[in-house]
Amino acid sequence: MSSIHSNIKKSKKYLDNNKCIGVPTETVYGLAGNAYSSKAVKKIFSLKKRPKNNPLIVHYHGLSNLKKDCILNKNFFLLYRKFCPGPLTFILKLKKQTKISKLVTNNKKIVAVRFPKHPMLKLLLKKLKYPIAAPSANIFSKLSPVEAVDVKEEFGNKIKFILDGGKCKIGLESTIINLVGVPKILRLGGLDILKIKKTLNKPLTLNLNPKNKSAPGQSKLHYSPGIPLRMNAKREKKNGAFLALKRRKNKKKNFFYLSKNGNLNEAAKNLYRILRKIKKNGYKSISVEKINNYGLGLTINDRLIRASQF
Ligand code: TXA
Ligand code: MG
């Protein structure tokens, strides 16, 4: 049996036994547990040190399973056809007969769901008899992990297994859209909102306020690298690192860059990894160059604003 298949088998065994494991997605790594099991979901909250009122995203392999738990609508189908599997999370109404643990949604009648694109996770989900609840695999308010070693760094031996699927292709969390009533974006993410707007062909409201009760995870202190970060900087501070969007001739040790030629998708992919690296190398602060506010640049800036609240 190939190592991929034996690792997937192992993952299934842990999940079937209500254990939590690290899983790869195309956005960031998740801390996964059986979404139908309150025992497993409880563990996710306690491992992450996450407040109970901050609900989790449930990950599905396909539509037929989602239909058992959620009420689907026209806007959902428009977006599903175009972008799934992919970095888009939908807020939908729960069906009365849903098996999703009440702890996932903090007893609310709405739930966040998505269809991850990572081939290894898709294989795993296909083998399971339940969807998986998975928040990003980091301790509450810290940076999301984009490689298996990051997950290890966050949880050490507290989790028994990490399904290693390499580096995440997108590197930023999914975009969240509330489809209960008028479509509203609750979190900027790996899918450009202009594409969503085009597909729905109607105006789209943004509700990204950190005080926004419908997405409690959007709190101000979030995505923190653990050292002070400032944006729109021209140079580093004393004992600090400088992070540029584009590579340039600079031999200084404290110079880092997000992409070779300023490509925002590449920058998104590298962002969390490089922020982690800067912190690990012992720098006392991070000064980030101005980043264009379009495409995934919007999401990068959203994360940097939150990271700079430290
Ligand atoms: O890309 C992603 O979405 C990753 C991967 C692992 O799938 N997951 C992720 O999960 O970022 P997490 O838990 O770190 O962020 C989920 C966000 C939180 O801000 C939470 O408040 C919001 O989704 N959320 C979950 N359920 C919700 C609901 N019913 N209504 C509004 N917001 C919800
Ligand atoms: Mg998170």
Q: Gyration radius, to the nearest Å?
A: 19 Å
Number of domains: 2
Task: Give unreliable regions as ranges.
Answer: none
CATH topology of the largest domain: DHBP synthase
The first-level CATH class name of the largest domain: Alpha Beta
Gross CATH architecture of the largest domain: Alpha-Beta Complex
Helix/strand/pairing class, anyone? Answer: alpha/beta
Bound molecules: threonylcarbamoyladenylate, magnesium ion
Helix content: 25-40%
- Tell me the overall shape: globular
Would you mind describing this structure in some detail?
With 310 residues, this protein is α/β, with parallel strands linked by helices. It has two domains: 204 residues, Alpha-Beta Complex (DHBP synthase), CATH 3.90.870.10; 79 residues, no CATH class. The strands form two sheets. Strands 1, 2, 3, 4, 5, 6, 7, 8, 9 and 10 form a ten-stranded mixed sheet that branches. Strand 9, helix 7 and strand 10 form a beta-alpha-beta unit. It is globular and about 60 Å long. Bound molecules: threonylcarbamoyladenylate (TXA) and magnesium ion. The site of threonylcarbamoyladenylate (TXA) has 28 residues, from strand 5, strand 6 and strand 9.
